[in-house]
Amino acid sequence: MRFLIAINLGPGAVSQHFTALAKELVDRGNQVVLLCPGRRHDLEEPDGNPAIYTWPSHRPTLLRDGIFLHRLLAKKRFDCLIGNFVAVNWICLVGAAARVPHRIAWYHTLSTQIDQDAPRRTVRGSMQRIRKRLVYKFATAIVGNSRAAILDLRKTYGVPARKCHVLGFALPDPMLNGVSEMFPKTPRKIVCAGRLHASKGQDVLIQALGKLIGAHPELSVEFLGVGPMRAGLEALATTSGVRPNCEFIGAVPHHEVLERMRAASFTVVPSRTEAFGLVNIESLSVGTPVVGSRVGGIEEIINDGLDGFLFKPGDVGDLADKMLLLWEDHELRSRMSLNARNKFLAEFAQPEATRRQADYLLTLTKPEHLSNA
Question: What is the spatial distance between Cα 208 and Cα 323, in angstroms, rounded to a whole number?
Fold first, then answer.
């Protein structure tokens, strides 16, 4: 079969996931094209397998991008197109016009997260949601990265159940791929990695830290990520009396996120809403327990009491209690650390997880599984 996967190439976890999936499909005798944004001639390898092409635009949302895709589809007879993020629109619409039999849209972000990060619903935002309803009608299948994503997809966009499938993300094992001891193990350190947006809930962590710092002044949190909430979070840390205990690192390379997680006692994921939360499996991959909100995909990943704790989203007291329990019990942390690592290896590690997903995709794209658009 011939696959086209529209995805950005880079060092991030999502890029790594789809690059590994492409390689697995190639290893099974399929032909794969990776279509990446930005007209990057330095990346293009049209004769390779996987071959690499690039869209004319940095974000493939313009008419010229649709024309480019139409010409590419006319040149190569694809059996399956896979779209991610904004590329989903052209993949589904142009793919349907070109009669490509399988058009798969990958669903990454919950509508509730979009709403929380942009609380004022604009006309443009409403139109985008209407447009997405139309686009999904031209997909033959939609893959969500969690069961929560599929529930949101069906509720928000009215997608029928027969089109919906769940495939989570996978990562290469960092303990075999270059994670070293760049940062020494620091028992007093907590890591919180993610965009500094309202939906990510870093304010809840700062307030929880304020409840603990009196008895445990040695506690500190590294915030990894950038976003519009940074100034407000720094101000909240000051008013909560924990500013010296909060370090806002900013954007760091993916490998450094893993290094800092490995060096921490545990990771906190305080999201108010989350489709999947790659930071959860990143933390598991380096054997660091997670204290995460009981929302969306997080509660599908973390086994409460085994490889981490779940707390009621937005509940400062509950988060503080779970942090304190994990902080004060070294034996519990050690046990959860081992369970976290084993959970990652069993469910989220490449190449095993990638092989399972390739099996699923090849079954999904058989003619008898074709859904009517």
Answer: 9
Token output for 253: 């390379």
Tokens of 138: 């031209």
Token pair for residue 362?
């090849």
Tell me the pTM: 0.92
- What is the residue whose two structure tokens read 């590329």? 87
Q: In the chain, where does DSSP find H-type helix?
A: 13-27, 63-75, 87-97, 111-117, 123-137, 147-157, 202-212, 230-239, 254-263, 278-285, 298-301, 316-328, 330-347, 352-364
Quote the mean pLDDT of the chain. Answer: 93
CB 314 within 8 A of CB 272: yes
For CA atoms 34, 36, 40, 42, the dihedral sign is negative
Note the Cα 224 to chain centre separation in Å.
15
Pull the structure tokens for residue 167: 């495939």
The pLDDT tens digits for 183-205 are: 777 778 999 999 999 999 999 99
Residue 178 CB partners (closer than 8 Å, separation 6+):
255
CA-nearest of 16, 14, 20 to 354 is 20
From the CB of residue 77, how many other CB atoms can be counted at a distance below 10 Å?
10
Q: Do residues 311 and 322 touch, judged by C-beta distance below 8 A?
A: yes
The predicted structure's pLDDT at residue 354: 94
pLDDT over threshold 80, residue 61: yes
244 three-state secondary structure: helix
Quick one: which of 232, 234, 220 has its CA closest to 191?
220
Pairwise CA distance, residues 168 & 170, whole Å: 7
**Contact residues for 69 (Cβ-Cβ < 8 A; gap 6+):** 35, 55, 60, 90, 91, 94, 95
State the Cα–Cα distance between residues 108 and 131, nearest whole angstrom: 17
Q: Tell me which residue of 195, 200, 207 sits closest to 246, measured CA to CA.
A: 207
